[in-house]
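pasting for ref
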Amino acid sequence: MSSGPQAPSGDGRGAASAFPVRAGQVLKSRKLWIFPIVLGLVLVALITTFYIGSVVDPLSHLRGLPVAVVNQDRTVSAGGRAINFGQDVERGLSGSTAVTSRLDLTDTTLSSAEQAMNRGAVYAVVDIPAGFSASLLTLAGAGGGASSGGGTSASGADGASAAIEILTNQRAGGVGVNLATGVLQPALSKASSRLGQQLAAAVPAQADSALTRAFLADPVTITTSDYRPLSNHSALGLSAFYAALLILMSGFLAATIVNSSVDGALGYATTEMGPRWSQRLPLPINRWQTLLVKWAMAAVLAGLMTAVMLLFAAALLRMDTPDLWLLWLLAWLAAVSVAEGTIVLFAVLGSIGQILALVIFVYAGLATAGATIPLQALPGVLKLLAEIEPLRQIVGGTRAILYYNAQADAGLARAFTAAALGLLFWLVLGAVVVRWYDHKGFSRLSPELLAYVSRSAREYRSRQAPAAQPGTEAAASREHADEPGEPAGQP
């Protein structure tokens, strides 16, 4: 049954009498206001808590951000004492509450640290070079290679530098890198001052000069360099996040489109396009069979949408996409998991399921993805939520493919596992609840009501449409339109 253009009344009173209810009358109803106001306020409170709570003060929530410390310094002898300033720097970092309360320091070798950065396991590496102690002694004029004036060379006798390098891992996330360096640089500056005091005691009197004293005030040079810089087509390290977000939205949109389209085609929802409104006669189909139809269509549509998304990103916009087929496979599986979950929420809760799906998959997901603010800098509740949020797992998988050579332990294995388990969870939940609805007789439309609607539609059409001669095109169209699942007719 559908609405089309109506013949206008000459004075407009015919339309007014057919639709007598006025907006003012409707707006006077208190019940009309209660639900949207309460729901809107609750939603905006949740969204604000998720979004603003995750970014407003990450430093105060920062706990356990992984950073590696590599000490390649060699012990040297000076004045009859064994000296290893690299170990002093290590002890200074590990003994500083300002550092250890925020960073998770791991003492390791340079090769192990590089392996950790290559899978996104650390945000930065503090690299204390070989010959660090010898260089400092030489520069201070306390070593055998120093000049009598205290020395101005930037290296020691063996050519080693007196600089400590912070290697940053932009692939793990720019904000996380900034947080790590923001904690490390002040701590290393303090360590430099302490080393200057130790060196002052070892400088011979004849080497004392204004230049030497200036050097001893801050003897260590701290440099920062990017480990394995990303290409220009990686969105400054955010391409993995944006790809993951589009994957999630592809699943959510696929579910929304399929749900409304199938319900309209089956006669359980109206279709309105511009001024035209239509309602098909409902098919006698139960909830479980309807859910199977939506699941099948959503799986196909999610695969097509993610394929088009990646095609545009890679071919048209030139985003770096190594292992494109593997990326699409992950995208399809993750999008299907989100799509089927959204459809289950529709089937179990009705139209309110769409809002809940937005909260679960989108709003909470964005706040806990760990793509901008690292997980270690999130409030405690959001850290727990991040363990099960789909977007966080998708981001880990896209990062592994785009930045870490598709290594399984860089987040790829977890992403596939989480997507598969999420899909299984939603399939089981939907099957159990929807089949229970059918078993208990909670039909969307009872058989009696279905029969009544069908009779009423035929009666309406017989009153509205002019009599058609048997065998004519109008009569055939009329008979076809009265079938369940087909339009009930045009006026």
